[in-house]
Amino acid sequence: MATQRILLHEAEDISEFLFQTTGMMPGYTQFSAGPAKLEYKVVDLDGVTLLWASGVAHCRWQDQMSDDGRVHFGIVLNAKDGVRSLGHEIGPTDAMLFRPGQEMDYAFLGPVKTLEIGVSKEIADSLGWTFSGAPLARIRGTRLRRLEIVCRQASKIIASNGEDLRPEPTAEVRGMVLDALERVLFPWLPKGDKAYSEFNECTKRYSVLKNFDRLLLELGDGLPGLSSISKELGVGRRTLFYSLRQSLGITPRRYIEVRRLAELRTRLKNSGPEENTVTELATELGFGDLGRMAGKYRRQFGESPSHTLRS
Fold first, then answer.
1. How confident is the model at residue 141 (pLDDT cuts 50, 70, 90)?
2. So what's the pLDDT on residue 163?
3. Strand pairing partners for 52?
Protein backbone atom coordinates (compact mmCIF):
# COMPACT_ATOMS: atom_id res chain seq x y z
CA MET A 1 0.00 0.00 0.00
CA ALA A 2 1.15 3.55 -0.69
CA THR A 3 -0.37 4.86 2.58
CA GLN A 4 -0.77 3.08 5.91
CA ARG A 5 -2.23 4.19 9.26
CA ILE A 6 -1.04 2.45 12.42
CA LEU A 7 -2.04 2.98 16.07
CA LEU A 8 0.32 1.68 18.77
CA HIS A 9 0.03 1.50 22.56
CA GLU A 10 2.61 -0.97 23.89
CA ALA A 11 6.35 -0.22 24.16
CA GLU A 12 7.25 -3.53 22.48
CA ASP A 13 5.01 -2.82 19.48
CA ILE A 14 6.37 0.73 19.19
CA SER A 15 9.98 -0.47 19.18
CA GLU A 16 9.31 -3.18 16.58
CA PHE A 17 7.45 -0.81 14.26
CA LEU A 18 10.13 1.91 14.49
CA PHE A 19 12.90 -0.58 13.75
CA GLN A 20 11.10 -1.88 10.65
CA THR A 21 10.17 1.61 9.41
CA THR A 22 13.15 3.79 10.28
CA GLY A 23 16.02 1.51 11.28
CA MET A 24 15.93 2.88 14.84
CA MET A 25 16.25 0.50 17.77
CA PRO A 26 14.47 2.65 20.34
CA GLY A 27 14.51 2.35 24.07
CA TYR A 28 11.05 3.71 24.86
CA THR A 29 10.24 4.85 28.41
CA GLN A 30 6.81 6.29 29.14
CA PHE A 31 6.46 8.51 32.20
CA SER A 32 2.75 9.32 31.90
CA ALA A 33 0.20 6.65 32.74
CA GLY A 34 -2.10 4.97 30.24
CA PRO A 35 -1.73 3.89 26.60
CA ALA A 36 0.72 5.72 24.35
CA LYS A 37 -1.91 6.43 21.69
CA LEU A 38 0.93 6.73 19.20
CA GLU A 39 -0.43 7.05 15.66
CA TYR A 40 1.65 6.78 12.50
CA LYS A 41 0.76 7.48 8.89
CA VAL A 42 3.31 6.11 6.45
CA VAL A 43 3.38 7.43 2.86
CA ASP A 44 5.58 5.51 0.40
CA LEU A 45 6.98 7.50 -2.53
CA ASP A 46 9.22 4.73 -3.90
CA GLY A 47 12.58 5.55 -2.30
CA VAL A 48 11.25 8.39 -0.16
CA THR A 49 9.06 7.73 2.89
CA LEU A 50 6.98 10.26 4.81
CA LEU A 51 6.30 9.23 8.39
CA TRP A 52 3.69 11.40 10.13
CA ALA A 53 3.45 10.71 13.86
CA SER A 54 1.35 11.95 16.75
CA GLY A 55 1.24 10.88 20.38
CA VAL A 56 -0.01 12.08 23.73
CA ALA A 57 2.43 10.49 26.19
CA HIS A 58 5.18 12.10 28.23
CA CYS A 59 8.00 9.80 27.18
CA ARG A 60 11.66 9.35 26.33
CA TRP A 61 13.13 7.88 23.16
CA GLN A 62 16.71 6.60 23.13
CA ASP A 63 17.39 5.62 19.54
CA GLN A 64 20.40 3.88 18.06
CA MET A 65 20.29 4.24 14.29
CA SER A 66 21.07 1.11 12.34
CA ASP A 67 21.95 1.15 8.65
CA ASP A 68 18.61 0.56 6.93
CA GLY A 69 19.80 2.00 3.63
CA ARG A 70 18.24 5.41 4.28
CA VAL A 71 18.98 8.78 5.82
CA HIS A 72 16.23 10.23 8.01
CA PHE A 73 15.32 13.90 8.46
CA GLY A 74 12.89 14.95 11.18
CA ILE A 75 11.05 18.03 12.46
CA VAL A 76 8.63 18.70 15.32
CA LEU A 77 5.39 20.11 13.93
CA ASN A 78 3.68 20.77 17.24
CA ALA A 79 4.64 20.11 20.85
CA LYS A 80 2.23 21.25 23.53
CA ASP A 81 4.63 20.93 26.48
CA GLY A 82 7.99 20.92 24.73
CA VAL A 83 10.65 18.57 23.38
CA ARG A 84 14.20 18.12 24.70
CA SER A 85 17.23 16.51 23.09
CA LEU A 86 20.70 16.25 24.61
CA GLY A 87 19.49 18.79 27.13
CA HIS A 88 18.52 21.32 24.43
CA GLU A 89 15.02 22.71 24.01
CA ILE A 90 13.82 21.81 20.50
CA GLY A 91 11.84 24.64 18.95
CA PRO A 92 9.84 25.16 15.75
CA THR A 93 12.97 26.11 13.77
CA ASP A 94 15.07 23.12 14.85
CA ALA A 95 15.55 20.02 12.73
CA MET A 96 17.21 16.63 13.08
CA LEU A 97 19.22 14.43 10.74
CA PHE A 98 19.54 10.76 11.68
CA ARG A 99 22.45 8.80 10.22
CA PRO A 100 23.60 5.20 10.86
CA GLY A 101 25.47 4.78 14.13
CA GLN A 102 24.12 7.94 15.74
CA GLU A 103 22.70 7.78 19.23
CA MET A 104 19.63 9.94 19.65
CA ASP A 105 17.91 10.88 22.90
CA TYR A 106 14.60 12.75 22.94
CA ALA A 107 12.07 13.58 25.64
CA PHE A 108 8.54 14.51 24.59
CA LEU A 109 6.94 16.24 27.56
CA GLY A 110 3.36 15.86 26.31
CA PRO A 111 1.26 15.72 23.13
CA VAL A 112 3.41 16.02 20.02
CA LYS A 113 3.22 15.81 16.23
CA THR A 114 6.28 15.11 14.09
CA LEU A 115 7.28 14.50 10.49
CA GLU A 116 10.14 12.26 9.44
CA ILE A 117 11.38 11.90 5.86
CA GLY A 118 13.41 8.85 4.90
CA VAL A 119 15.49 8.98 1.71
CA SER A 120 17.23 5.95 0.25
CA LYS A 121 21.00 6.08 -0.11
CA GLU A 122 20.64 5.53 -3.86
CA ILE A 123 18.59 8.70 -4.24
CA ALA A 124 20.83 10.68 -1.85
CA ASP A 125 23.93 9.58 -3.80
CA SER A 126 22.33 10.43 -7.15
CA LEU A 127 21.67 13.97 -5.85
CA GLY A 128 25.23 14.31 -4.57
CA TRP A 129 24.17 14.57 -0.92
CA THR A 130 26.99 13.91 1.53
CA PHE A 131 26.36 14.71 5.17
CA SER A 132 28.44 15.83 8.13
CA GLY A 133 27.98 17.81 11.32
CA ALA A 134 25.87 17.60 14.46
CA PRO A 135 22.53 15.74 14.48
CA LEU A 136 20.64 18.93 15.37
CA ALA A 137 20.53 22.21 13.48
CA ARG A 138 18.56 25.44 13.42
CA ILE A 139 16.82 26.15 10.10
CA ARG A 140 15.02 29.20 8.79
CA GLY A 141 11.38 28.72 9.80
CA THR A 142 9.93 29.58 6.39
CA ARG A 143 11.90 26.75 4.78
CA LEU A 144 10.64 24.21 7.30
CA ARG A 145 7.05 25.36 6.87
CA ARG A 146 7.42 25.10 3.10
CA LEU A 147 8.73 21.55 3.47
CA GLU A 148 5.76 20.64 5.69
CA ILE A 149 3.26 22.08 3.16
CA VAL A 150 4.86 20.17 0.27
CA CYS A 151 4.84 16.91 2.26
CA ARG A 152 1.16 17.40 3.12
CA GLN A 153 0.36 17.99 -0.55
CA ALA A 154 2.31 14.87 -1.51
CA SER A 155 0.49 12.80 1.11
CA LYS A 156 -2.91 13.98 -0.15
CA ILE A 157 -2.04 13.15 -3.74
CA ILE A 158 -0.92 9.64 -2.83
CA ALA A 159 -3.96 9.04 -0.60
CA SER A 160 -6.43 10.28 -3.23
CA ASN A 161 -5.01 7.99 -5.93
CA GLY A 162 -4.61 4.91 -3.72
CA GLU A 163 -3.45 1.77 -5.53
CA ASP A 164 -4.05 3.35 -8.95
CA LEU A 165 -1.13 5.80 -8.75
CA ARG A 166 1.22 5.17 -11.68
CA PRO A 167 5.04 5.43 -11.51
CA GLU A 168 5.20 8.76 -13.38
CA PRO A 169 3.02 10.77 -10.94
CA THR A 170 4.82 9.10 -8.01
CA ALA A 171 8.17 10.28 -9.37
CA GLU A 172 6.80 13.81 -9.81
CA VAL A 173 5.50 13.93 -6.24
CA ARG A 174 8.76 12.50 -4.93
CA GLY A 175 10.66 15.21 -6.81
CA MET A 176 8.55 17.90 -5.13
CA VAL A 177 9.49 16.55 -1.71
CA LEU A 178 13.19 16.19 -2.54
CA ASP A 179 13.40 19.76 -3.87
CA ALA A 180 11.85 21.15 -0.70
CA LEU A 181 14.01 18.90 1.48
CA GLU A 182 17.26 19.95 -0.17
CA ARG A 183 16.55 23.57 0.79
CA VAL A 184 16.64 22.68 4.49
CA LEU A 185 19.61 20.30 4.43
CA PHE A 186 22.24 23.01 4.03
CA PRO A 187 23.69 22.72 7.60
CA TRP A 188 24.69 19.10 6.89
CA LEU A 189 25.84 19.42 3.28
CA PRO A 190 29.34 20.58 2.23
CA LYS A 191 29.96 24.27 2.99
CA GLY A 192 27.16 24.20 5.51
CA ASP A 193 26.74 27.17 7.83
CA LYS A 194 29.12 26.88 10.81
CA ALA A 195 26.76 28.81 13.06
CA TYR A 196 25.08 25.61 14.19
CA SER A 197 27.93 24.32 16.38
CA GLU A 198 25.84 25.01 19.49
CA PHE A 199 24.29 21.58 19.04
CA ASN A 200 27.58 19.72 18.78
CA GLU A 201 27.76 19.10 22.50
CA CYS A 202 25.20 18.10 25.08
CA THR A 203 24.44 20.37 28.00
CA LYS A 204 26.01 19.85 31.41
CA ARG A 205 22.65 18.85 32.88
CA TYR A 206 22.19 16.21 30.19
CA SER A 207 25.65 14.85 31.09
CA VAL A 208 24.38 14.38 34.65
CA LEU A 209 21.41 12.40 33.28
CA LYS A 210 23.69 10.15 31.22
CA ASN A 211 25.89 9.47 34.25
CA PHE A 212 22.74 8.79 36.26
CA ASP A 213 21.62 6.25 33.64
CA ARG A 214 25.01 4.57 33.72
CA LEU A 215 24.99 4.34 37.51
CA LEU A 216 21.48 2.87 37.59
CA LEU A 217 22.57 0.14 35.17
CA GLU A 218 25.64 -0.63 37.28
CA LEU A 219 23.63 -0.79 40.50
CA GLY A 220 20.95 -3.04 39.01
CA ASP A 221 18.20 -3.94 41.47
CA GLY A 222 19.96 -2.70 44.59
CA LEU A 223 19.34 1.05 44.52
CA PRO A 224 20.53 3.29 47.38
CA GLY A 225 18.86 6.57 48.32
CA LEU A 226 19.14 9.73 46.22
CA SER A 227 21.68 11.24 48.63
CA SER A 228 24.02 8.29 48.05
CA ILE A 229 23.41 8.42 44.29
CA SER A 230 24.17 12.16 44.19
CA LYS A 231 27.39 11.59 46.12
CA GLU A 232 28.40 8.82 43.75
CA LEU A 233 27.78 11.14 40.79
CA GLY A 234 29.72 13.96 42.40
CA VAL A 235 26.82 16.41 42.29
CA GLY A 236 24.36 17.79 44.83
CA ARG A 237 20.77 16.56 45.10
CA ARG A 238 19.56 19.91 43.81
CA THR A 239 21.75 19.56 40.70
CA LEU A 240 20.48 16.03 40.11
CA PHE A 241 16.88 17.22 40.50
CA TYR A 242 17.21 20.12 38.08
CA SER A 243 19.24 18.06 35.60
CA LEU A 244 16.40 15.56 35.20
CA ARG A 245 13.78 18.31 35.20
CA GLN A 246 15.67 20.09 32.42
CA SER A 247 16.37 16.99 30.33
CA LEU A 248 13.24 14.87 30.88
CA GLY A 249 10.68 17.01 32.70
CA ILE A 250 10.58 14.51 35.58
CA THR A 251 12.07 14.14 39.09
CA PRO A 252 14.82 11.59 39.86
CA ARG A 253 12.52 9.68 42.22
CA ARG A 254 9.77 9.36 39.60
CA TYR A 255 12.34 8.39 36.96
CA ILE A 256 13.61 5.53 39.11
CA GLU A 257 10.05 4.44 39.88
CA VAL A 258 9.03 4.32 36.20
CA ARG A 259 12.17 2.37 35.28
CA ARG A 260 11.49 -0.17 38.02
CA LEU A 261 7.83 -0.54 37.01
CA ALA A 262 8.86 -1.04 33.38
CA GLU A 263 11.45 -3.63 34.39
CA LEU A 264 8.86 -5.43 36.52
CA ARG A 265 6.49 -5.50 33.53
CA THR A 266 9.24 -6.99 31.34
CA ARG A 267 9.97 -9.70 33.91
CA LEU A 268 6.27 -10.48 34.37
CA LYS A 269 5.79 -10.79 30.60
CA ASN A 270 8.83 -13.08 30.29
CA SER A 271 7.74 -15.30 33.16
CA GLY A 272 4.54 -17.13 34.08
CA PRO A 273 2.48 -18.05 37.17
CA GLU A 274 3.99 -21.54 37.17
CA GLU A 275 7.52 -20.09 37.36
CA ASN A 276 7.29 -17.01 39.59
CA THR A 277 4.85 -14.96 41.63
CA VAL A 278 4.31 -11.22 41.48
CA THR A 279 5.62 -10.98 45.03
CA GLU A 280 8.88 -12.73 44.14
CA LEU A 281 9.57 -10.61 41.09
CA ALA A 282 8.56 -7.34 42.77
CA THR A 283 10.68 -8.08 45.85
CA GLU A 284 13.71 -8.76 43.66
CA LEU A 285 13.34 -5.24 42.28
CA GLY A 286 13.15 -3.69 45.75
CA PHE A 287 9.41 -2.98 45.97
CA GLY A 288 8.50 -3.05 49.65
CA ASP A 289 4.83 -2.09 49.86
CA LEU A 290 3.30 -4.49 47.32
CA GLY A 291 -0.19 -3.03 47.61
CA ARG A 292 1.09 0.45 46.77
CA MET A 293 3.21 -0.98 43.96
CA ALA A 294 0.17 -2.74 42.48
CA GLY A 295 -1.80 0.52 42.48
CA LYS A 296 1.00 2.39 40.70
CA TYR A 297 1.40 -0.47 38.22
CA ARG A 298 -2.30 -0.44 37.36
CA ARG A 299 -2.30 3.34 36.85
CA GLN A 300 0.80 3.13 34.65
CA PHE A 301 -0.17 0.16 32.46
CA GLY A 302 -3.94 -0.16 32.82
CA GLU A 303 -3.86 -3.68 34.28
CA SER A 304 -2.75 -5.45 37.46
CA PRO A 305 0.67 -7.14 37.79
CA SER A 306 -1.07 -10.51 38.22
CA HIS A 307 -2.93 -10.02 34.93
CA THR A 308 0.37 -9.30 33.12
CA LEU A 309 1.89 -12.44 34.65
CA ARG A 310 -1.00 -14.61 33.48
CA SER A 311 -1.20 -13.17 29.95
1. confident
2. 55
3. 41, 115
What is the reported pLDDT for 177? 96
Sheet holding 3-8, edge to edge: 3-8, 38-44, 48-55, 112-120, 70-79, 94-98, 136-138
Q: Report the candidate in 79, 17, 83, 15 with the shortest Cα–Cα distance to residue 51.
A: 17
Q: What is the largest CA-CA distance in the chain?
A: 64
Specify the higher pLDDT residue, 212 or 288.
Answer: 212
Domains present along the chain, CATH in parentheses: 3-199 (2.60.120.10), 204-310 (1.10.10.60)
Cβ neighbours of residue 252 closer than 8 Å, sequence gap 6 or more: 212, 226, 229, 240, 241, 244
Q: Which of 201, 20, 24 is nearest to 99 (CA)?
A: 24
Integer Cα distance of 300 and 303 in angstroms: 8
220 C-beta neighbours (distance < 10 Å), count: 11
